[in-house]
Design a protein that fits this description.
about 120 residues, mainly beta, Jelly Rolls, about 0% helix, disordered N terminus
């Protein structure tokens, strides 16, 4: 599959394998989507979050761009508070969620790969 590059200001859409999600956020800009690799810039508005989920085969690399980004994981339980320029890695099969510190707006780059992407929701 040829890479898709720079899909700016794209909202989640039903049936779109690149952008479809069971939650809504302020912004999702796809920088790159190729076999086994995705790079996006996500913006979470006040009070928004990426709910608990995991990926079967891909790791997530989060890099804070604006505001304080909070990445929480289960097994192992951890809380990563990222200032702009800081990053963390969530391995495959690790449940995680993302929000802005104190429910504030934040923006981050997420690199997902290498492997087949999936989104597996987790119970609270």
């Amino acid at each position: 599959m040829p890479p898709v590059i720079l899909r700016a200001n794209t909202k989640s859409k039903e049936g779109d394998p690149i952008m479809s999600r069971p939650y809504e956020i302020e912004g999702r800009d796809c920088v790159l989507h190729a076999d086994g690799l995705r790079v996006q810039v996500l913006t979470l508005g006040p009070g928004e979050m990426v709910p608990w989920h995991y990926h079967s085969t891909v790791a997530d690399i989060f890099v804070a761009v604006e505001g304080q980004v909070v990445v929480e994981t289960r097994a192992p339980a951890a809380r990563h508070e990222l200032a702009p320029g800081e990053h963390c890695v969530v391995p495959a099969k690790t449940a995680h969620m993302v929000t802005g510190a104190a429910g504030e707006r934040c923006r981050f780059t997420i690199v997902q790969g290498v492997g087949k992407y999936d989104y597996m929701p987790c119970p609270l």
